[in-house]
Each structure stands twice: as structure tokens, then as C-alpha cells.
Amino acid sequence: MELREFGSKIVIRCDKNDEIIDSIKKVCSDKNVKAASVTGIGAVDKAIIGLFEPKTKEYHTVELNKDMEITGLVGNISRMEEQVYIHVHATLSDSSYNAFGGHLSAAWVSCTAEIIIDVFDGNVTREFNDGVGLNLIKFQD
After folding, report:
1. Quick one: CATH architecture of 2-139?
2. pLDDT of 17-28, one tens digit each?
3. Which H/E stretch holds residue 120?
4. Is pLDDT at 139 greater than 90 in this prediction?
5. Could you tell me whether strands 124-129 and 36-53 are parallel, antiparallel, or unpaired per DSSP bridges?
6. Nearest one of 59, 39, 43 to 105, comparing CA atoms
7. How far apart are the first and last CA of the chain?
8. pLDDT surpasses 70 at 93
9. Cβ-contact 101, 90 below 8 angstroms
10. 15, 20, 78, 103: which is deepest, by most CB within 10 A?
11. Exposed, middle or buried: residue 8 (CB in 10 Å: 0-12, 13-18, 19+)?
């Protein structure tokens, strides 16, 4: 992984076998990012994506093991209990042009991934909401 900073933006190039979520988390931890948006494209050969079921308050995940393009990666970065909190969704396309999408838990780069983190000047945290069953954004005054 390599990165460069351009004003409030951090551009990351993930390399073969890098895990994308861990890479984003490491950069945000090292750079003390407290609030940001994140976008990206690239190629992976393994990914874990999920869907939250509101009725049961459970995530259902699937592991995909095949060559896929990241046709869209979008999300945000905040903090929960002082730790970096990554909330990213992705759409992945296979060789038959079938798309798979959902909450991205992990993805391993097969060629490269290009990630852009756009840092906000501020602090956004998370707090568990029992009624919803998720860690929701909590704005700091």
C-alpha cells in the first residue's frame, strides 16, 4: 500500500493481497482521521459482503471467491469509543457481469485498488442504538 496526501484528501493505492478495510483503517488511525467520506475502485478476488436484516437485527454475510471488479465503493469514516469506524458499501461485478453488493466487511486486492479518503474538519462518532440494532452516527457539539 502507498498513499499521498493532497490537502484534505488522502489517495491510497492498495496492492495485490492487501485487505481494503484494514488498509483504510490503518491509514485513518495513523493520520488521526475522525470524520471522512471514502470512495474507490479496483479489483478483488475475495470479498465478504453483508446485508442487515432489521427484523432480526442481524447481518447476513456471504463470501465471494472469484475475480471481481469493484464498480463502486462508497462509505464514511467516523470514530466509536476512540477507534476508527469504517462503514463502507460496495458493488462488485464478476466475469459474467453479474453484480453483487452490500456492506463490505473485507476484500482482498487481486491487482490494485484506488481509494480516496476525503477528510472533514470535525468529529463524528458512533453510538449503538438498541431500537435499530446498529451503531448510528452521533454528532458532537
Report:
1. 2-Layer Sandwich (3.30)
2. 999 999 999 999
3. none
4. no
5. unpaired
6. 59
7. 35
8. yes
9. yes
10. 20
11. exposed
